[in-house]
Specification:
Layout lengths: L1 H24 L4 H19 L14 H23 L4 H8 L2 H12 L6 H19 L3 H6 L4 H23 L5 H23 L9 H28 L2 H5 L4 H8 L10 H18 L3 H4 L2
Helix pairs in contact: 1-10, 1-12, 2-3, 2-9, 2-10, 3-8, 3-9, 4-8, 5-8, 6-12, 6-13, 8-10, 9-10, 12-13
Length: about 290
């Protein structure tokens, strides 16, 4: 049951990230936005584990897995994510993110030889219907009229990388506690930004608006530090294919969080939310209680 809570909270936090990222990109380059995200994210993680910080020697326990997740899974994902959002809308990005459960299911079967159950397939399809209702607002013409750009291709590639990351977390995180694994991988990602930003960005500014720093705090401390800690706990406890379905909650979270931005809540939000949650419940139903700590 704890795994469900961790994964749902993560999906809520990541749904907010679309708003935070868009705000940051109005004032900073995608590289600078990523740098501040992980600077605040790693500070939050260090603060949460101040009494039990990992030792540098622990890195050698599973350095291949840490480097895969940190460099490709996190740094590569964030480059594609922030750059993609420069050229596409949150609606298109949310639609592409809804493909993540299917991608994770495929890689889980291919690389981990995880058995795909009928509950997972049915639940994934039901949740996808809920996502489509949310994004089209009961008007299929909206889906047909969507125009895809290079930004959408970048978001798709980011989604692909994230699906692989789910597999790597399951493979390599067991050598560490969840907090130590998250600290190491986020620190590697931060170091990548630290190395590349001076080469591509003339200067990193701290002269940003209050909205920028609030967004940086949100995407860094909550949408990165806390979210990745919860996600890694959830993925480590259950299979990536079962965890991946929770990504369908991200577009709903993005839509619902708009309420706090003084945007109106509609009936389709409620209906799509019920359908998405129904799909998640069905996906987790096959012997889920037996596999959850």
């Amino acid at each position: 049951m704890k795994s469900i809570i961790y994964l749902l909270l993560t999906a809520i936090f990541w749904g907010l990230n679309f708003h935070f990222a868009k705000q940051m990109l109005t004032e900073a380059s995608f590289l600078e936005a990523g740098f501040w995200r992980y600077t605040l994210g790693i500070l939050a993680l260090l603060g949460m584990s101040i009494k039990t910080l990992p030792k540098l020697s622990d890195f050698l326990l599973e350095k291949t897995g840490l480097l895969l997740v940190g460099i490709i899974g996190l740094f590569g994902f964030n480059l594609l994510f922030f750059l993609g959002l420069l050229y596409t809308s949150p609606v298109n990005a949310s639609l592409i993110v809804s493909l993540n459960p299917a991608m994770t299911l495929f890689f889980s079967y291919l690389l981990l030889h995880t058995k795909i159950t009928r509950f997972e397939i049915i639940g994934m399809l039901i949740s996808l219907v809920g996502v489509l209702i949310l994004l089209t607002k009961f008007d299929l013409n909206r889906l047909l009229q969507l125009e895809f750009s290079k930004g959408d291709v970048l978001i798709f590639l980011a989604n692909l990388v994230f699906a692989l990351q789910n597999i790597w977390v399951k493979q390599y995180a067991k050598a560490f506690s969840s907090i130590h694994f998250t600290i190491f991988t986020n620190a590697i990602c931060w170091l990548c930004f630290l190395l590349i930003v001076p080469l591509a960005v003339p200067s990193i500014s701290v002269q940003h608006s209050t909205d920028f720093w609030l967004s940086a705090f949100g995407i860094g401390c909550i949408g990165t530090g806390l979210a990745y800690l919860f996600w890694n706990k959830g993925v480590s406890a259950i299979s990536p294919s079962k965890a991946g379905i929770f990504m369908n909650f991200v577009p709903l979270s993005t839509a619902l969080s708009a309420i706090f931005l003084q945007q109106q809540l509609h009936q389709y939000h409620l209906i799509s939310g019920i359908i998405i949650l129904t799909g998640i419940i069905i996906t987790q139903s096959n012997k889920f209680l037996q596999s959850t700590p």
